[in-house]
């Protein structure tokens, strides 16, 4: 029971507050590394470290905490104004003009424990005037006025002082309530005093007040006046927000303003309150002031005392006589967040009175009038010209004050006498606070009441005060007992913390309401920005007592000595046992004695015999004492622990007997035991064998681990004994299994007596329900060991039969129309278990035992019926049996189904050649009946879909497995299956068999369309997590196309588009339209969230999706909506609606709108596929077309119709011609140079689209002449020398005459290259023989336009003949074509 540092709250995201207050620190922090509670503070820039880091290395002390955080990122909290409400319901962090309000929220931590976390409730700027900054802040909780919550806080007001002199009051949401300008100098410090009940009649009752310190003045606002004004302003804000312009003037504030004189500088202050001098002090003060002949009043005057710290004097004492100055009244400057108006009244405008609207407007434009201060001279001080005070902190009882200075000293002042009574050295930049501890009278030892110096139990509690000093230079927090006491606690806490000491409680209480219930408050808090935690100090009262007066201190000394003794390593345990007995018997306080016994029982060094003997000795000692002197709680505690120790000893003896039974059970005996026929048993064994073979999950086992072994300390830690009943504490699942293994593991293996164990546990105080829970937890968690030892099933049967025969287990008079809670508990454990094989076996055993017991009950009732002639007894028993049996049969069917599913999910291919994504390596969840029942109608298909995604099976596999018979050696399964499966035919065959078995078990839930729909959705969900994995989206479309029912296909496609696609698709469109070309990788990643390669594949898949959606919409008119059924065993499923059900609820699409989007998608894909430039996709559409994009596909939109503007058609035609040219170019370049890897296309040509056909389709949709596109395609083919493909494409052209003219030019270019550019002698001679017109025409040709000049002359001859065929004889260029025939013939003669 020493001084301790307790962590009671965390920051949810302190880094967000730091980034808001210090924007320059945000830039240095990586964007993705935001931890909720950690701010590592490591700096990589030497400039950030600051010169102060050198000084700290010089003053380090050996005992200080080592730290590497020396950058500004860790010290940022020292530059902020910090305030915490004493009720811990609000914290304010402010810097310059900005502030962050933090509010507590209860949340679960990573370990599953509920804890309080401070989260940002409001953040923003508080400054109203230009250049003003926050200089001080307070969070004051205001008491509730409701009778039901008397003494509790209603809301918290934030008081903020500014460098402009303004003091403003805010709500928790940052709403400005009122503002006051009481002095034009900057506000230095705000402090508050709330009501405290006087400890005894001699103490003067203090009034509540808010004191504001300025450089040369102190303003004190009366607490009652402030409380009423704040309530009125808050009500006014609520009314104005609700109704509009309703204005109610709140009551004025009453304050006093003192001008402090005869002092150079003031840094901090403390308002002591009203004090009354004793007659002697009155005469001494009068003599000092007035001299020998001073007049003395009959009654001592009441005075308000103020203490300031600064320089000259270092500490100044001021006394203001009550009644010497009349309180000033100010009109409240009210700020109301109104819907209609924001009214701002005059601040501190003088005396009471109302102003006209005209006057108010004039006043608002200038600063409010400031009342002059009443002069107040310093009476005396502590003169020290070199010392400068930095802060002062008043103790809770107003008798002491601690002062810090620039010399690194902490000085303790006696407030009443004005003396420095103690000094601490070496505390530079110290932060101080106080803790007041009230003695707990119930902790006094009952047997020492009469002799104790405390007096009787009804006497007043004593109060102790401790000074808390935080030294940031050394990173240490110390607790000192005042006035002259020792240091009672020290903690290493780091160098970046802030110590918060409010020094007040709830405002608005009085001597009646303050005695009612009050919330828990922490007097002092330490904020650690590095760990993101808030801590408080717990100090026991006895630390304030001297050793002579404190028996508790002596007890604590004995406890420490005991702890040291328990840590010693010694082989002589008898000697240790003797010493421990002496120590624990010497301890006087019962609570300390209990604490000592707990530490002994938790010691892992002492053997069991020592623990038992020590507990027995203590119990005997307590029993032999008089009943009046014995603490009943301690006696009961010892007795309970001793009973648990005896139980541990008994169980250990039974487990050490090691009864080995070699009897093995045959299949027939096992079938009889489980009440199964041979076929059912063989099927069960086959299912378990498959599960065991596929479930290859390994568990880590250590050599020291022994099943069934449990240390005695752990045993005592897990169990509680109360009122002759043993219960298990709240422990983890693994600990629960360990406890159950200690009791039952040997019994389940047949190595221990089952009957003796059950009898021992029942007699010790275990309830049958608890034993059943422990037994089932062991059985279900040790699945692998159980499957290896089939005889354990018989042991479980025996154990379950014995537990069921215990008292209170099964009531024979149970209502026959209800279900037994005993068996329901067992069924519930099986339903929740994820170890399906063990659960299925235990369910079979439970069913068998339940049937056996029901038969016995039926036989008894039957005999009673015969003897007592009760004809209804037999029917009742059979009804009860049939009802429970139905539940067991249902559970067995569900567990069998779940086992088959889990076996399938465990199966996998041994070799995988394709690259796995990190998403595919994530483990699958383990199934249980409960999870399937809560997963909704689509839960079963969803789990299979996750497995298919993990294994990345081809959709054709699902169709294969759906066939009733799977051909083992046929060639059919190989069609459409990737090469991965062909390498492992055995694995594939096993997986197909498991899938087929799952289909048989779930004919409705795993319908082929349902499964494809879930697989499609799973793939697209995973693709959305990592858009770089384009193959996921492609595989999703494959599954979508495999869905046969058009209604399901339509709904899934529409949901995919709306949920995952349309946002990225629109981003890609706007990006490409902005850059006017195929965007680079960096832009794609920034705007669309994927690389340029992935975006190309994404647009291709989008086109597939839209086409599938249109096809499904057309086909749905000819199909019926499917009926979604559920298997009988799974009718009771609950949970989220399935994907297929959602798909069937989707509205029908507007076909033209989808077609409109498919045209845009084709254009975008073409731009990305061929890396086109100078193309803005949206410029191909008019305003109607643009407005229709990215709207809901089910809505009716106004689409382009009628004749299109020729300018649009021209732009569209140019784009389609580019597409054709790029497609032919890409095809020709790949065909020409297959080995050039640099020019290989992004997508293999075999999987690419038929771009000429697609271009013609786009021409139809975009109102472009299709024949122009076809002619251009023919020309491009001939241009690249692919004449055989060009001849085929000519057949599609309608206007062949125009085409012939264009081909004639291309022929001329080929001949011009052959004759003019090769510069051969034969070519020149041939050119001289040609007709002049032909020569002139050939010289005008530009062969540079040809992409393939290496075309054989024979191929060109065929082209000329084709041109002659297409040209009519009356055509103007027909004669030129005839000359070309002669020229080609002449060229081909020399080459032949």
From TrEMBL:
One Gene Ontology cellular component annotation held by this UniProt entry: plasma membrane
Domain Rab3-GAP regulatory subunit N-terminal, first and last residues per copy: 76-500
Coiled-coil ranges (or none): 674-701
Coiled coil found in the keyword field: yes
Superkingdom of this protein's organism: Eukaryota
Domain annotation Rab3GAP regulatory subunit C-terminal: ranges: 771-1368
Location of the protein in the cell: Cytoplasm
Coiled coil keyword on record: yes
Segments for region (Disordered): 29-49
UniProt keyword terms in alphabetical order: Coiled coil, Cytoplasm, GTPase activation
InterPro entries named among the record's database cross-references: Rab3GAP2, RAB3GAP2_C, RAB3GAP_N
GO terms for MF: GTPase activator activity; guanyl-nucleotide exchange factor activity; small GTPase binding
GO terms (BP aspect): establishment of protein localization to endoplasmic reticulum membrane; macroautophagy; positive regulation of autophagosome assembly; positive regulation of endoplasmic reticulum tubular network organization; synaptic signaling
PANTHER family reported for this sequence: RAB3 GTPASE-ACTIVATING PROTEIN NON-CATALYTIC SUBUNIT (PTHR12472:SF0), RAB3-GAP REGULATORY DOMAIN (PTHR12472)
Similarity annotation: Belongs to the Rab3-GAP regulatory subunit family.
Record protein name field: RAB3 GTPase activating non-catalytic protein subunit 2
Annotated source species: Monodelphis domestica
